[in-house]
Amino acid sequence: MKHPPLKSIKFIGLSLGGGKTTKSCLTVIEYFPLENKVFLRHLFENISRSQEMTSDEWLMETIKEVSKSSHSLYVNVPVQLPVCLRCRLKCPGVERCRQKEVQWLRDQYSEINKKLKPKRVLTPYTERCVDYFVTHLLEEKFDPGHGLGSNLAPLTARWQFLQKQTSLPVIEVFTKAALWRIGRSLGVSKNLLRFHKHAIDGREARSKILDSLIKRDTAFLYVQDIRLMIDNSHAFDAFVCGMTGLLNYKKQCEPRPKNYPKLAQWMALPKENIEW
After folding, report:
1. How big, in percent rounded to 5, are the helix, strand and coil portions of the chain?
2. Which residue of 1, 17, 25, 158 could cross-link 238, Cys pair, CB 3.0 to 4.6 Å?
3. CATH of 9-79+151-249, one of 3.30.70, 3.30.420, 2.30.29, 2.10.25
4. Are 229 and 238 in contact (CB under 8 A)?
5. Domain ranges across the chain
């Protein structure tokens, strides 16, 4: 007697690199709700150009192929531009601006500058509310950089171009914060979580983090994929994005904070105490 196929839900995790690099990696996490089982179904490493396609075309073809049965896409770069670049009003200047996101950022800077010397300067044309929140308002000190800061600007621009080519819901993930919450809920030490991308200690840290997931029966991972994620931090980050997608589906991510601007981008941030 044939048994009906198990119903599953898939989440795409994307670690995006520059359009002229080979750093982009993509994972597909498959979740079986009835059995509460998680599998790393696909891992695409070092997505780059070929003789027939550019890296952008190859990446979007890959997403198109796996998105046919996928719930949503979770990416580790900004998915929304800073408020000033989205605004079409005549600009009165930062101090007189009445846009809710600028007002929220202005209030936050006013508070933090009471304790800092020299004072920080608000640049709402480079930073977003979510950038400030992750940097200053979490339990650990994170620094994602500004959405249009010197490090992230090229990736932000690339994703603004690419996201027009997918119909999937796209959710932003800051992988350091997501991994911190996931790792702490599994009992992984703070030092390992802080150094998971370190050039020297990163491989050992990623190995122990993945081992913790396996021992807790949190996810099934093939040996070759484990080795790949240990060797390649971008593949590891894509996996973290996919796992964050699963947690968001299971309502194990933080809701938007109170008084957070309605039009400002929020992110998928796992809760401090995850119920696996």
Report:
1. 40, 15, 45
2. 25
3. 3.30.420
4. no
5. 9-79+151-249, 83-125
What is the length of the chain? 276
Angle at 66 between CA 61 and CA 67, to 5 degrees: 95
Question: For the packed helices 175-185 and 202-215, what is the interaxial angle rounded to 10 degrees?
Answer: 50
| Residue that is written with structure tokens 């998915």 in the block | 79
Q: Which of 239, 198, 201, 237 is nearest to 218 (CA)?
A: 239
Q: Extract the tokens encoding 99.
A: 């846009």
Burial class (CB in 10 A: 0-12, 13-18, 19+), 83: buried
Q: Return per-residue pLDDT of the chain as tens, 276 residues.
A: 555 555 899 999 999 999 888 899 999 999 999 888 999 999 999 887 776 889 999 999 999 999 888 999 999 999 999 999 999 999 999 999 999 999 999 999 999 999 888 889 999 999 999 999 999 999 998 988 999 999 999 999 999 999 999 999 999 999 999 999 999 998 888 988 988 888 777 898 899 889 988 888 888 999 999 999 999 999 999 999 999 999 999 999 999 999 999 999 999 999 999 998
Residue 91 bridge partners (DSSP): none
- Residues 6 or more apart whose CB falls under 8 angstroms from that of 50 comprise 58
Which residues is 43 bridged to in the sheet?
Answer: 27
CA–CA separation, 191 and 194 (whole Å)? 5
Structure tokens at 120: 């920080």
